[in-house]
Amino acid sequence: MKISRNRLSMSPEPAASLAARLLPFYGRGKRTQAGPVQGSSLCSEAAFNARNLPPALERLLTPQEGGFGLADMELAVQVGLTHSRLGLMRTSMAVAATDRDEYVRAWIRQMWSIDPASQITRWAKVGRDQDLLVSGVDRAVFECIDAFASRTGMRFVSCRPAALSMLEMHGSSATSNDQLFVWTEPAHNAPRTELVMLTHGRGDHLRAVWRGWIPASERDEALAGAVARFAAAHAITPDVAIHQVHWDDCPDASPVETVAV
């Protein structure tokens, strides 16, 4: 399942494609081959939130399924930037494992300006430094998905920010040169949402993460300007490889229905 600002999709995938996941929120048991669920998707003019997400999730089920026949299937969810966050927590010294959760909560409150309790958060060391990659998913959205999985009998095995796949590209890169990744997401009647994410890294060494609001346009001059400012702020050379990654959260094979939820 994939949830962006105003797009929602669910489609079966082979078990092998779900195997490797960075920072799974929780997992139980062995993965099973996807069952008979047909790919389905919704596109809403209104942004999905904790109020309108539950009925939208129900609409993903086809009339033939009616909420049945899903028992023992596994539900893996990717969440877009509207309901997830990523950040690089710089630490100049080693922090004891017993203190890290407290440090992360304080960092979230200061850097993201939100209550840490409003997020389902995870963290992990990145590269060879003491820096931590902190990820969060809105708790209200997480709880809606959890309730949906319980009602349908599916096993809720993971929920993570979709943009983590961009960081996996950093880690899987064999090059030792600097790379800059630009993450964008589709929107209703627009080429992308206003929320974008930029990351700078070298191989598996993550150096900077930035998430911000950039208005979209046909030529996207504002985004190009943001990339230039990000590169200047982090002393990234002009010859750095820039990778544009646009998250396609609604498969082409699935029908897209415009709904008001």
As an assembly, this protein is single chain
Strand content is 25-35%
Give the termini separation.
Answer: 18 Å
Q: What value does the Rg take, in angstroms?
A: 19 Å
| Annotation, overall tally of beta strands | 13
Mean pLDDT: 79
Total DSSP helices: 5
Describe the SSE topology:
Blueprint: E1 2-3, E2 7-10, E3 40-44, H1 53-59, E4 74-79, E5 84-89, H2 97-111, E6 119-125, E7 132-138, H3 139-152, E8 155-161, H4 164-172, E9 178-184, E10 195-202, E11 205-213, H5 221-233, E12 241-246, E13 256-259
Parallel strand pairs: 1-4, 3-13, 4-8, 9-12
Antiparallel strand pairs: 1-2, 2-3, 5-7, 6-7, 9-10, 10-11
Describe the model:
The chain has 261 residues and is an alpha/beta fold. It is 22% helix and 30% strand. The protein contains 5 helices and 13 strands. The longest helix has 15 residues. It is globular and about 50 Å long. It starts with a strand and ends with a strand.
Key words describing this protein structure:
261 residues; alpha/beta; six-stranded mixed beta sheet; four-stranded mixed beta sheet; 5 helices; 13 strands; 22% helix; globular; disordered C terminus
